Amino acid sequence: MCPPLTTKNIKQYEPILAVGTSNGSVLVFHLTSGLLHKELSIHSCEVKGIEWISLSGFISFATSTPNNLGLVRNELQLVDLPTGRSIAFRGERGNDEPAIEMIKVSHLKQYLAVVFKDKPLEIWDVRTCTLLREMSKNFPTATALEWSPSHNLKSLRKKQLAAREAMARQTVASDTEVSSVESSVISLLQEAESKSELSQNISAREHFVFTGADGQVYHLTVEGNSVKDSARIPPDGSMGSITCIAWKGDILVLGDVDGNLNFWDLKARVSRGIPTHRSWVKKIRFAPGKGNQKLLAMYNDGAEIWDSKEVQMVSSLRSGRNVNFRILDVDWCTSDKVVLASDDGCIRVLDLSMKASCFRMDEQDLIEPVWCPYLLVPRASLTLKAFLLHQPWDEKYSLDITNIDIKKLLLDPDFTLLQRCLLVARLYGDESELHFWTIAAHYLHSLCQEKPAKPDTAILPEQLVNPLDICYDILCENSYFQKFQLERVNLQEVKRSTYDHTRKCADQLLLLGQTDRAVQLLLETSSENAHYYCDSLKACLVTTVTSSGPSQSTIKLVATNMIANGKLAEGVQLLCLIDKAADACRYLQTYGEWNRAAWLAKTMGSDAFAVALRGMQQQQSVCVAAQAPLCPQVRLSSEECADVLRRWVDHLCSPQVNQKSKAILVLLSLGCFTKVAEMLHSMRYFDRAALFVEACLKYGAFEVNDDTNILFLKSCLCSLNLHI
């Protein structure tokens, strides 16, 4: 998390969170808006840590996988957030050395401590990117490190200001011609100049503590180019190996591998050890804010918030008990909010009780206006939806809404009803309506391609050329569905590696009418395989089967007996071999395999949508055929295919199943538009029914008669009653 909000940076402050990823990039999020602010590709390997040096810059480090000697390539980058520019902080250093364990920036952002795994630490000057000191080889390896919040910057400022004032007085006293007014102006200018140059000219003294492998605490002081060893504190016998340190005010907290927290009161010179009975303490961090002594502790299995004044736990979060995710990292985002990074890829902001934090929508800092109709009261939301969908009383659309890009599209009179319904479904996030209008628009355009309803009807060219998206599976046209199934089986055949895989491919090819290729796969069965004899006989049967009366009767009898004795799949294959696909579908439906029956009907039949076209147009419909090598044999007429799907619709509408929404989509694919409108009305989808009837009338899918007029008026009146 970026440096906390203070009275000095309140005008420039933005709540920015930097998150390192495994691919070497750093994601920068704006927490108030919840949006991704920037994505910076900085490293070539996994990011291990990030330390902010200002509100607009940070230092990140990454380490590559170790080689045979256990050495890695360390990458330490200084990043300027506004420009995205990054520079190698350590210059040419970093190749074939021990991995960096952690980096810590001092409280005044002057110095940087770099801790290695099996190498003494380094102290760097952040402002000049220069190495101040590299510790000697006999220097202890640090297991945990923390900078002190205390420094001598204020005293240095006072001394420098006093020196400048004394110099100004001497200058004024020696020059008798300078008036008193001019001297006061000079002193004010010099004081302002001294304050502006203070951060550049002064190197304040800061100090830090770290622990060695033996648990001993070392205290070092850094001032300018000098690093001095100040004191050493012997290890605490009750503590294990120290893993992390936090320091704020007079309170120093240490965590170890056994889950113990040790609170040191430096002013009172007392310490208190608390066993948390948790796993290894991975990280501890004090909350920002003067006088705020809340402490955040992270473990392998969760996190806790402690009050360091009272030395007691405030709240706890445990993976597997409170939550299902595992915590990867923690930090404070404000004085009373915690931010967590979890293994499910989420960033979570929690309050002090470790529960999800909420805030008012009007307090959210959003870049663009929010479109969320579900925040409105239901009546207002439904009214807005009705206005967006249709305004038949006037040729000119009008609506007082926020001036956004979509407004011009919604108020465009050339924007067709189907296009409008699709757009509003997306705006409202209504998945049911989106699927309905997508399929309805496709098949109404297909109908319009055969017979345009009106000369001025707008038709989308891409809808006339492209088939329905394959994600709709069985709802697509038969020819396109068959082509896709063949491509799918061919892909599976290329990737087959086991006998079971080969057998499944052969079974699918038989059902798709690709008997030659299926026979080849059956003959590939090894003689050592237990199914060798059966596969060989099946190959002979597939090759020699004829459509003569005696053979058909025998095969049909065998298939019926197999189905009756639990061999449903094998019996269906035999029926398909003798062109009894309609009987096969009926058997599948009888035994509850409704989806399988629909799949078989779609793969073996001509386009069922042609039945509806012939009924409405009283002429033969021309079905779009796929490429000859990829098209399976058509063994079901369009009427038989439609009958199978209609029985499936009846099953979906039954009280035991009650999937009428899915049944409506199947009816749309069959071109039964009148039945669709009646079902929508019976399900009390009055808005959708009225709009669908009007769309069908425009595209010529309905004949204008008393029945359609009554249905349209009933739907409109019922819809109007709902909105009043």
Automatic annotation (TrEMBL):
Keyword Signal: no
Domain WDR11 TPR residue range list: 487-608
InterPro entries in UniProt: Beta-prop_WDR11_2nd, TPR_WDR11, WD40/YVTN_repeat-like_dom_sf, WD40_repeat_CS, WD40_repeat_dom_sf, WD40_rpt, WDR11
Keywords linked to the UniProt accession: Cell projection, Cytoplasm, Cytoplasmic vesicle, Cytoskeleton, Golgi apparatus, Nucleus, Phosphoprotein, Repeat, WD repeat
GO cellular component: axoneme; cytoplasmic vesicle; Golgi apparatus; nucleus
Matching Pfam families: Beta-prop_WDR11_2nd, TPR_WDR11
Ranges where the WDR11 second beta-propeller domain occurs: 15-334
Domain of life where this protein originates: Eukaryota
GO biological process assignments: animal organ development; cilium assembly
Principal subcellular localization: cytoplasm
Annotated SUPFAM superfamilies: WD40 repeat-like (SSF50978)
Annotated compartments: Cytoplasm, Cytoskeleton, Cilium axoneme; Cytoplasm, Cytoskeleton, Cilium basal body; Cytoplasmic vesicle; Golgi apparatus, trans-Golgi network
Protein name as catalogued: WD repeat-containing protein 11
Taxonomic lineage of the native organism: Eukaryota, Metazoa, Chordata, Craniata, Vertebrata
